[in-house]
Amino acid sequence: GHDGKCVKDCTFCKNLLKYTKKKMLHYQIGDDHMTYKTEGTCSQLIEIELKDGLIDSVTFTGGCNGNLKGIGALVKGMKPEDVIARCKGIRCGFKNTSCPDQLARALESML
Fold this sequence. Notes:
The chain is of the alpha+beta class. 39% of the residues lie in helices and 23% in strands.
């Protein structure tokens, strides 16, 4: 069965990625796992897992690899509400959004 942790490696996730690029904003697998399609950023997807009300993992697909791995490491163990408060509204260059802002929006949609 599909465990939702393999965006790049399984047929389900490959098909999900194709579908999300065309039609959906996000796909939620249960209450604690989401694959979110970003808008207006270099990253294309954010995979989020919550455990016991805290962020267990955040993985970005695309974008600035090292910086986004850093964001994932920094937010691990935090309350989603705290990440939203810190990251919502951050802009990247002349864009109206950023990868941290998209993470905040994804987390808001999970709460």
